[in-house]
Structure formats: C-alpha cells, structure tokens
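Study this pair:
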Amino acid sequence: MPVDCRVADVAGLRIDSRQSIGVDLSLTITLHPASHLELTSHLNNRISEMQVGFVGLGSMGSAMALNLVKAGHDVRAWNRSKLAQDDVPGLALVERAADAFQADAVFTMLSDDAAIREVILDAGLLPGAQSGLTHVVTSTISVAFARELALQHEEAGLGYVSAPVLGRPNVAASGQLNILVAGKSDAVAAIAPLLAQLGKKVWKLGECPAQANAAKLACNMMIAMAIEAMAEGVVLTESVGLDRADFFELILGTLFSGRAYESYSAQIRERSFEPGFKAKLAFKDMRLATEASNRIGRRLPMLEAVHEALGNAVSLGLGEKDWSIMADMTVRGSGSVAPSKSKMATTS
C-alpha cells in the first residue's frame, strides 16, 4: 500500500511519485504536462525579474516601452526632449541616458545613426553600462553603423542585437510588430522573452547584426517602390477616366494583394497623408539604402527613383507628411500636391 506521495514540478512537468511496499520496492512516476496557465505564470514570473532600460520615447518607442510595462517589467526610460510623467504612465523616467544602461537589457529607438552616436557612443555610455547588459537597437540605421556598433559592444564586453521593426505606431501599441533580429545567439536568447512582448513575430536572420538592418532597409525600399508603382498605375488609368478606387479594387483582388498595397492604396485613394511614417524618415532610409548599394558597387534604378521622389517631397516642405505623399506628387506632377480630404473638409 502507498506510504508516501509527493508532487513536484520540474521543467514544466508535474511529477507524482508514490512509494509502494510489497515484495519488491517500486517507484511509480507519472508525468503530467503542467497547465498552460501554470506555464504562463512561470514564464511571466521569470521575465518580470528583468530590469529594462529604454532610450527614445517617440511615437514608436513610447508604445514599445509601455507594452513592456504592461507585461510586468521594471522599465526605466530616457528621452532627449523632456517628457511629463503623465505622458508615459508606468515608466520610470531617468535624468540621464546612462541610467537606462544600468539594467539587464536596454532598447534604443532613436531616429538615426547620428542620434545614436551622439547619445550613446560620444557620451561614453558603453564602458559604464551594467555588466552583462544586452543592448537592442530597434532603430533603422545604416549597415555600416550596425557593424560599428557590434564591434564597439564587443570591445566593451556587452551583448548587442539589431532588431529593427516593421509596423506603424498603432501596430507597436497593439504589440503586433514584426521584429527583424540578428546578433550572437546568446545575446538574442537573453532578450527573446522581451521581444515576445513587443511583436507577433520575431524573424531571426543571422548572427551578424547588420543582416537585420540590411533586411529592414530592403523592406522599406520595396514599400516605397510599391507606393510609386501604384501612383504610376493611377496616372495611366485616370488618363482614360478610370476611377482610382475601381483600379485599386482590381489590383488588390487579382495581382497585388498584401498589406503594403492594401494600406497605401487606401491612402492614395482617399488622398489622406497624415503621418504614420514620415516622409523625412523614409527619405533617410532611402539614403541609407543608396549608401549600402554604393558600398557594393551596384546601381539600383528603382531605388534611385523613390529616393528622388521622397527628396522632392521633403524639399517642398512635406517631410512631416506620410511618405505616401510622394504618390500624390507623381499623380499630379512632381511640383504640386492635392489638398487632403481631411483638409478640404476642415476648410469647407
């Protein structure tokens, strides 16, 4: 008859052990998978112990940082321009960027190479960072600068991961980003639970951080090309009286389904260009893509076209508009832009 019964959880498995006394001494072990709720609680308790820093609280950065707070993390954050605590409830705002680097992991979402260089490298934050820290740069930066950052972190004995994201601020707020990740496997593993709180999919692209940055630039380049392609399609079809709404219904239902075509055809159709991704930032990304292609001695004609189109938009003072504004310039001729429907409604 059983004289002892114990229950233990080991590595997510529930183990019941019973000792029985008879002619022979036997041990019966029954394995029961722990419930989903128990596993979730176990994982949440584990990752909530991490201290997380965040540098850069713009529309993307603040949405990502707040999601980490909602997931139960202790997040200390710094922004170049002063923010009120009420603007970012739950975040612990710190006085210096260096304070954000006193953590297990720190995320950076600053606008470009120059901003990261000024705030982090020129300020000498890496040598003074907490031992064992992993730095995750989610900004869209140049391939060359990604290589430099990887080297600087290695020399400082810190982990470094490039993790640029696909998605607008509303996508970031809902935790549905696609995250492009590259870095040494141990560094990626260290921050994997945090990435799971920020996106619907983590795309592991390799152990060289620059691989993720090249992929992000290529993605943005191809979205810009899709926007320009739709605009040029409208030029041809409207010239014979075909409504752009009917044309877009055709292409979306046949040859060109997909998120980029669906999202940006709607903006072109409605002539609605309030920023999701600003034209000035897209122009920066096309410049970085152009620099990368020049480094390998290749000319990319379609990239040149969208780089020029976005440059024209910025030169006309439209840098704060959504990057799809370049489609309206193509449809109307590069020197003119139609008033948006929202603006017409306001002035009528």
Remarks:
- The CA atoms of residues 255 and 261 lie 10 Å apart.
- DSSP finds 14 helices and twelve strands in the chain.
- The chain has a mean pLDDT of 87.
